[in-house]
Amino acid sequence: MTENKAIIDAGWNFDNSYARLPNSFFTRQSPTPVRSPKLILLNDSLATSLGLNIQALKSKDGTAVFAGNQIPDGALPLAQAYAGHQFGYFTMLGDGRALLLGEQITPLSERVDIQLKGSGRTPYSRRGDGRAALGPMLREYIISEAMHVLGIATTRSLAVVTTGESVIRETDLPGAILTRVAASHLRVGTFQYVSNWGTAQDVRTLADYTLQRHFPEVDPDEHRYLFLLQQVIKRQAELIAKWQLVGFIHGVMNTDNMALSGETIDYGPCAFMDAYDPATVFSSIDQQGRYAYGNQPNIAAWNLARFAETLLPLLHEDKAQAIKLAEDAISEFSDLYHHHWLAGMRAKLGIFNEELQDESLIKDLLGMMQKNRADYTNTFRALTFDKLEDTGLSGTAEFAQWHELWQARLGRQQEPKDSSHQLMRSSNPAIIPRNHRVEEALEAAVLREDYSVMERLLDVLSRPYAHSPEQADYSTLPEPSNCSYRTFCGT
Hints:
It is an enzyme of class 2 (transferase). The protein is of the alpha+beta class.
């Protein structure tokens, strides 16, 4: 009785709309209990916004829920089925190491998924152990929360617990479970699974559910499934543009890693770019550069085309007409993305209005940055505060000419210089999760159980546009190395 009361007091308020979809969409499954869970990270502000009681979450029973050792009242754990194109090759997938506990209804009546990642084997584990190592779970916590405060749509991290058990990868590593919060876990790959292994009615059911969950504003008289496609395209165009504007590289943009809500999801081999180079790749498994920084907009369009293919039976009874509707919708992505990217780049340079030459001005700057291997984030920050010597570009006739053109451009708008400066301050982060700083935090946590390094990093990252003195150390570049930085998917 005491245990149940403690769980109820935590504030869990579950509904399970996904569990009411056809049984073929998922498998009911309970988490595999772990030996001795320990709560090491709790996102207090996120917990409060979800209507949860922080003290209850920090209790033994609260930790047991995050570990999968107890199921809170109202939850119906399940593993979602989905498919996906992984590096261009289609395959059956599914939640191989994650379980959806249910959907928390927040005090604002919002519906969000609560998912445990690393909670044990499922029918979709594909010979995996269903577990997660501590390092990758901490990486997701750091990067997803950094993305959130940067103003980029993303899944959130509520908690991380260690399990008291080891997972075997290249070596024995401490195990952990991450609690992830998402608008939903509906993916392009979810539709690919239902389209390939379900019926036309199943696709319609999933599409109706997605509309109800994420796009309830659809006009009943509109072509609702074309509307769904168009809205997903719009959200992805805005999302990918925001990635590019801060130098974020997802690392594994498979179709199962594209959320229909428009949130960034599945932080595996992700990282932020230092020196500007469109060919930048950090992922150890991306040998051909398919998901390089400069390729991300094209890959997003490719993924959206795969989504459109699943909707063809719903778009029009005549296949040729359905394809035409889908192609017309997909063709809008490039212009939408370009609009968001160009508007964002203008803001990074303090430009309020539009001129035809703006794109040339922007691309000339990026070209100089690439040629001189100038740091992406620090260059824009230096321009923001007129510290030209810190751009890595000063001292050349080419940059001097560019700077003169930029200043003339700013002079041709009505807004005063102070307004341009404020626009740049709010558009150019002082800091990002520098790869070497993230690795420093992960090493301290995993090897020495010292979480203070990560806590300091999270604190500094929580105010990316503050441009405060204490952030200076976290904006410095790593020491030169002969080894290229590489990230790993953590599976």
